[in-house]
Structure formats: C-alpha cells, structure tokens
Write a structure and sequence with these properties.
It is a single chain. By secondary structure, this protein is α+β, with helices and mostly antiparallel strands. It is 54% helix and 23% strand. It has a four-stranded antiparallel beta sheet with strand order 6-3-8-9, with no helix packed on it. Strands 1-2-7 form a three-stranded antiparallel beta sheet, with no helix packed on it. A hairpin with a 2-residue loop joins β8 and β9.
Amino acid sequence: MEENKSGKTGLVIAIIAIALLAATVVYLFLSVRDKGREIEEMSQLFEIEKEEMENEYSGFAVQYDEMKMHISNDSLIRQLDKEKQRTQQLLEELRQTKATNAAEIKRLKKELATVREVMRTYVVQIDSLDRINKQLAKENTRVRQQYQAQTKVVEQLTVDKQKAEEKVALASQLDAAAITITPRNKRGKEEKKVKNVTQFMVNFTIVKNITVQTGEKTVYLRITKPDGEVLVKDAANTFRYENVSLEYSAKKYIEYTGEQQEVTMYWDVEEYLSAGTYTAYLFVDGVMIGEQSVTLN
C-alpha cells in the first residue's frame, strides 16, 4: 500500500513538472512572437518616420531655390546655396541610412530640426527685405513721379523761353512794307508786255524798328522767273539763308538807323523773258523780310 501511494505521488509530481515545462515553453513562444511583432511594428514606424524626414529635407531644398528667385542680393544667394547643399547632403545621408539604425535616424532628426530653424531665419530675413524693397519701390515711384512732374515744368519753361526768344528774334528783325515790283521799258515807263521789258524796279520801305541793331545792312534781291529759275548775272552771287546758299539777282548796302527807310533796287534785263509771273524776294541778315509778284503778258 505504501508503495502504491509513493508511486502515485511521483506520477503527480511528474505531471506537474511536465505541465510547468509546457507552460514555460508556451510563455516563451508567446513572448518571442510578441517581441518579433513589436520589432516589426517599430521597424515600420521607423520607415514611415524616415520617409517623412526625406520629404521634409527635399521640401527644404526646393524652398531654397524658390527663395533665391525673389532676391537679388548676391551675398544672401550664396548663403542660401550653401544651406541648400547642406540640406541635400543630409538628405543623401538619410537615404543611405537603414530604418533600423535608430541612432543615425535620431541624429538626422536633430539635424532636421536645425535645418528647419535655419530655414525659418531666412524666411524672416527675406520677408523683411521684401518689405524694405516694396517700401523703396513705392518711394522710387513717388520720386519718379515728382521728377516727371518737374521735367514737364522744365519742358514747359523751355518751350515758353523758346517762344519768348522767337518773339524777341522776330522783334529784332527788319521788315519790308509797301513792296512793288515794276517792269519798265527802255523809256523808263511801266510795261506789261514781256517783250518790251528792259528793267525791273523794286521799291520797298524798311519799317522802323528800334530793337534792330543799327549800322550797315546788306539787302539781297532775288527775282524768280515763271519757271522758278533765278535771274542772276553770276553763279557766284550767293548768300546764306537757313544754312543753305541761295543765288541773288542784286544786292544793296544801306545804313540802317532804326528809322523808316525807303529803298529802291534794279535789275537790268539782258536775257530772254517769257510771259508769266515774276516774284521778287527780299533778304536781310539771313531773314526774308518780304516778297511781291507781277505778271507779264
């Protein structure tokens, strides 16, 4: 009886031991499985975090290029290029880092925070420069408008001055009045038949003008035929008028005193004349002072 009791006790102990061993194996299996699942989940989280960091690094590199498009400061552009290269270098390091390398991921995450802070600093700086540039542009616009307004005033004053000078110039010029061109025959009588004309007599009055400089003046008489050709004795007989040389038919020196003065000039006909209109032009000091015409049959 004692032996049976002892045998049963040993069997129970053996069963309990086997049960404990089985429970331990099951526990260890479940622990390893859970640990593997936890590692897998952590690996997936690291992979997602790594991808997000890569996207942020890439976004910063693009932002540096966009920021350069809005500035013209060479020194600042060089700084942005330097930061962009650093960002691209960190991005390359991140791409070559495995998601399971927690220490390296942590380091690059700290570097990303630094890059983010540097980027924020440049954004503030460029925003400040942009406000200053807009203010300067506004000021430049105001100054340019003032300059344009002043330019218009100066231009108007120039025009007014030019007009005044022209009036003075006109006032300072001689003027001829009561001009007559009389064709005469050999008896000195007025003649209308072209075949009998032997001389043209031109009479005119120099008008009184106290603004004109007194002294000797040269009066040039220029008579044109119906075809526009000038009656001239010598091709060398020319004078200056508006920067060109014109032929003259006759000239006369007068002593101008500022008072009204009667003048008579003559042209002796030595060439063939055709019927039509003949015009006499008078010039003094490079200015045409009058003209008159006559028609011959």
